[in-house]
Amino acid sequence: MSEEELIDNTEQGRFELHRDEHLVGWLYYTRLRPNRYALRHTEVEAGHQHQGVASAMIRRVFDEIRTREGTVTAICPFVADFVSRTSTYDDLIDPRHPGYPDRATAEAAQRKTTS
């Protein structure tokens, strides 16, 4: 099994997942007060797609935010889809600013803002 490390690259505003010292994916966020993370966009290196990188990264990010006693607002369609399929991280979803409930709603909102 490969060695994974999650790095919070605050300069670029993203969590980065490294496997065997190679950057394989990242999740852009905006940190809002008091301790809320708006998870905005997930990307996976082309050579690592369809290998569970995004899901592994989101689990690691949620676990990290939990240790920081933070909350999450799901903006990214992939994050919204992940959250809609599990109750494991329900306690992290910000009750006042939950973000989007599922992938379709998040994608529709993105299309609306880019058109």
UniProtKB/TrEMBL annotation:
<protein>
    <recommendedName>
        <fullName>N-acetyltransferase domain-containing protein</fullName>
    </recommendedName>
</protein>
<feature type="region of interest" description="Disordered">
    <location>
        <begin position="93"/>
        <end position="115"/>
    </location>
</feature>
<dbReference type="InterPro" id="IPR016181">
    <property type="entry name" value="Acyl_CoA_acyltransferase"/>
</dbReference>
<dbReference type="InterPro" id="IPR045057">
    <property type="entry name" value="Gcn5-rel_NAT"/>
</dbReference>
<dbReference type="InterPro" id="IPR031165">
    <property type="entry name" value="GNAT_YJDJ"/>
</dbReference>
<dbReference type="Pfam" id="PF14542">
    <property type="entry name" value="Acetyltransf_CG"/>
</dbReference>
<feature type="domain" description="N-acetyltransferase">
    <location>
        <begin position="7"/>
        <end position="94"/>
    </location>
</feature>
